[in-house]
Design brief:
CATH topology of the largest domain: Rossmann fold
CATH architecture of the largest domain: 3-Layer(aba) Sandwich
Number of strands: 8
Radius of gyration: 21 Å
Largest sheet: 4 strands, parallel
Strand order of the largest sheet: 2-1-3-4
Helix content: 25-40%
Order of helices and strands: EHHHEHEHEHEHHEHEHEH
Number of domains: 2
Number of helices: 11
Length: about 425
């Protein structure tokens, strides 16, 4: 870091917008991790040196808040992929069904406030800033806000719990883009909280929700219940490359393995009423790629139809109820509302299944307390053995490895919080 107090070039404060792709990253002398704090510059897998952060930056995906925002938002999301407006217009109808407003920004406002209050109560008492990758409030403005407030060391909390290109590395690349575009790359130091898929605060919120749904269905006389753990599908090539290289976690890479592990823990911890049989499956939703490109399967709607068909063809007992648990998501944003509450629940009804879709963590106190613990984990430099994790895979690493979560369809771009490939 140069120690300069003012940016010399870049996107001005308040200009907003999704920044252009960065072509290079800024490193402190001798560092192997761009834009990192002193504790993380050397590239340690787990950072065990305490760091005095100035603020937490909640990094969201973003969403429209008016009908006229929908198409600009979708163009930001798909920038560089050559998707025509005609196709985007089809997706836009999902947003217009809800008045052109995605609930994700309101949910992040609530999460930001809850986390700041929790940190004030339990420490460290840090302000929580908020910026989005794809729509206002943009990440570039959040970085300017941090700089103007005198903050220099930021701890980033991405609103995604798992490892893959779209759920981790793309957030890190967008951070590098924003730092370059604002001219703050040699002024701000930025670390990122680890993938927290198996932190108790995240997992236990689903245990509580699934257990409540099972109890409700049992109260309706349902005795064979299947839990469908739902997450966003991604291209199989991205899944294979998810996580740090060199660790064989199966054909779906870290992304699929992490979801499977979380599902197992939820099932193990969920209390089951007497006389109720409970099983589960991992399913996917929200596929958006061309038909020629393989994505993770099964789709949740196809799987529900298959359950009904298989029982009819084989004569086996079929479930009389479904619990849909969106373990891939932090909040009830539009893809949860449309793809699960609309399409999946309709499919369940068509095939005669009683079904409940359980809530995501949102600003649940258990989840918020878990996020505060993750902030303390990095601020304290907590050793790996003392970090909270409920699966055999975790706790995940602090500093991503070279070629971590590669995207086979595009060359590597600068990214923060990781050792450069």
């Amino acid at each position: 870091m140069s120690g300069a107090s003012q940016p010399t070039v870049g996107l001005r404060a308040g200009a907003g917008g999704k920044p252009p792709r960065a072509t290079e990253a800024t490193y402190a002398p001798g560092a192997v991790v761009p834009a990192a704090t002193a504790a993380a510059r050397g590239g340690a897998t787990y950072v065990t040196e305490p760091t005095s952060y100035d603020a937490v930056l909640l990094l969201g995906f973003g969403g429209p808040e008016a009908s006229e925002d929908v198409m600009p938002f979708l163009r930001n999301v798909t920038a560089g992929r050559g998707i025509p407006d005609e196709r985007l217009a089809e997706v836009a109808e999902h947003y217009h069904h809800f008045g052109g407003v995605s609930p994700i920004n309101a949910q992040n406002r609530a999460l930001r406030q809850a986390l700041e209050e929790e940190l004030a109560r339990t420490g460290p008492a840090l302000p929580v800033l908020w910026g989005n990758r794809n729509f206002a409030p943009y990440l570039t403005d959040a970085l300017h806000e941090a700089h103007e407030a005198g903050h220099r060391r930021l701890l980033v909390l991405a609103t995604s719990a798992y490892s893959s290109y779209s759920s981790c590395r793309q957030y890190r690349e967008d951070l590098a883009d924003a730092l370059a575009a604002t001219g703050l790359a040699d002024v701000l130091e930025v670390d990122k909280i680890r993938s927290f898929f198996d932190h108790p605060g995240f997992v236990e919120s689903f245990v509580t929700a699934v257990e409540g749904a099972v109890a409700e269905l049992a109260g309706r006389g349902r005795r064979r219940i299947t839990v469908l753990f739902a997450t966003h599908s991604i291209p199989t090539g991205d899944a294979e490359r998810s996580g740090a290289p060199g660790r064989d976690l199966g054909p779906g890479g870290a992304y699929e393995a992490q979801h499977l592990a979380v599902g197992r823990v939820v099932m193990e911890r969920t209390g089951v009423p007497d006389g109720v049989a409970l099983d589960s499956a991992l399913v996917y939703q929200s596929r958006s790629g061309p038909p020629s490109q393989p994505w993770l399967e099964p789709d949740i709607n196809d799987h529900i139809a298959d359950i009904a068909r298989d029982a009819q063809e084989t004569g086996a007992d079929r479930p009389d109820a479904l619990v849909i648990a969106p373990i891939g998501f932090l909040s009830d944003h539009l893809e949860v509302l449309w793809d699960l509450d609309n399409e999946a629940m309709e499919t369940a009804a068509e095939h005669g299944f009683d079904a409940i879709r359980v809530p995501t963590p949102g600003a649940d106190p258990t989840f918020v307390a878990g996020l505060a613990d993750l902030v303390r984990e990095r601020a304290e430099g907590r050793p790996r053995s003392q970090r909270a994790a409920l699966t055999e895979l975790g706790p995940d690493i602090d500093v991503c490895r070279p070629e971590c979560c590669a995207n086979a369809r595009r060359p590597f771009a600068p990214a923060v919080a990781g050792v450069a490939p």
